[in-house]
Structures are given as C-alpha cells and as structure tokens.
C-alpha cells in the first residue's frame, strides 16, 4: 500500500454542482519526487468567484483546461504506475478533497482506484499528540501556496516528520 497525499482546488463547495479546478498528488516517500498535477475544465456553469480565486486561475483560463475524463484517466494510470498495491488516499482536509476526487473518479471513469476509504492528516496528528486542539501545519517545510502539488508536498512532509520524529507507525 502506498500513501498518496492529495490536495484539491475547486470553484465551489461540492462536486457536480461546482467543478474541481485542479489537484495535486504526491507519493509519500522520503524523496517526494513522484507527483501528479491535473487541471480540469469546468463541468458546470455554476461557480463562486471567491472560491475560484483561491486557485489563482480565472474562469477564462479554466475553460481551456483538459476534459475531466482525460485527467482522471491519466491520474488512475499514474496511481497504478506509482503505487505499491492499493493506494491510500490521505489529505489535510479529506472531507473536502475526497468528495471531489471520489465523485470525479466514479463519474468520469466508473471506479475510484483508492477504493472507499480515506485518511485525514489533521485527525491523525491530533490522535498522535492526544490533543484535539493541536494542528500539524507547523510540520510542513514547503510553503502552503494553494498550488495543489506544493500543498500536497507540504502535507506529505508533515506525515514523514510524524513518522521519523514522533513515532507514528505507518508503512510508507
């Protein structure tokens, strides 16, 4: 099993009504050298300007991005090539990121290579330090920029630190 850290940017709060603009994924391993970046054309006419602005793209720019079926198929292929066995989805906010990745995989490819489970990095950290008021974000080395590959990399760095310095038992 390989842990795949994922980060999503969208133009609204839910898939289907709104669109996933882009996402990044990083295989969690010491080198953090295996990455995926997808930019997707909108699937809906609905969008929230403030939500889209977080991604740094304009509506005109995202209209020129690749078709979602192409991006999700490429991501599925990348997962097969870069994951040992069943990939494990993990993210900073899996309630948000998972809903988009899961919906897009099922809608555009018919299946989600991650299966039906995901892991929340923040909750994992809170359990590790036994304090629900704590936050892992100080463990990132890569600045949080809303570039989804940067953000996934920073979160992967935090997970690697939890393992190396805090005693988290996880097979990476």
Automatic annotation (TrEMBL):
For molecular function, the Gene Ontology terms on record are: nucleic acid binding
Residues in a coiled coil are: none
InterPro entries linked: RNaseH-like_sf (IPR012337), RNaseH_sf (IPR036397), Rv2179c-like (IPR033390)
Domain 3'-5' exoribonuclease Rv2179c-like residues, every copy: 3-160
Any Pfam family the entry gives: Rv2179c-like
Q: What is this protein called?
A: DNA polymerase III epsilon subunit-like protein
